[in-house]
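Researcher: Go.
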Amino acid sequence: MKKFLIILGILAVAQLSAQDVIFSQNFLVPETLNSSFTGAIKTSKIGSIHRSQWRNYGLKTNSNYFYYDTWLEGIKTGIGITLLNHTESASSYQFNQVNLNYSLSFQINDTWFFRPSISAGFGIKNYGFQNLLLEDQINLNSNSINTSSIDPLLLREKRMFFDFSSSLLFNNENSWIGLTLKHLNKPNISLAQNGNIPLDIFISIHAKYYIPILENRGTWITSKSKIYFLSNFMLQGSFNRLDLGVQYIFNEQFSLGLITTSSPLSKRSNNSSLITSVNSFAGISWQGFRFGYSYDFKTSEIANTGGTHEFSLSYDFSKNIRFLNRFKCVPYF
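Model: Structure:
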């Protein structure tokens, strides 16, 4: 029975692993949302983000994201690299992917810019089946264990694939709206030797819109304050998610945000809530460094899981260039 439950758990993880990792700080670290942010502040930048969830149980998962990109002014091009690592303790599942990003920038009119990008990656999913014992490996007559199996549940331990994505971004001095399409080639992620399970295309429509409610208030605090409306709709196979929230920024140095998460296209039971979580985040910018922390509050009836924590650290090189050419750059913090 225990082995049966393990197998069921692993297969469930395999299904969940078809869903992309989603970071709560995707408005503080927008590279996780859209590859068109590559080179978007007209200088080089580097950073990472760490996500930890289900800390109170054996289902603990960790996700790590790293990026570096730069802007080549001579050819008006942004280039960059991203690394993603995801691990799940219950199944020893690991996922690693490296992507190369390429972006361009076109001025549409006096205030708006258009930034298309493409991303090519290589991914490896490892499910750690090497310690799984199947029924036909047990020989009761000789009290021995066979090293091979013909059980139909004998699955591949590792799956490697190429991955292609594309993104679009429109921005002015204060706001932006973007579209991302991941896994355009629908790579095969099947665990069976000759199986074919295409990875669903991940769609994200996201925006950060400046709300000028504090303008012309005539005080020192309001003159340095900005409020933004945040939104991000995501769809991948049967998975759907809508994030709506607000962000407050003071003097381009301090940031506070609150986002509500829901699944508007999913069927809900009578006891379920439309809001599945409330995600809070805070950021500090200092001499080119950007620090971020977020915590997700679950609103469902799931037992105490230890919460979801995220930590991020980024650095913008030659930050003065960002301010001198602010009207040409994407509003970032």
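Model: The radius of gyration is 22 Å.
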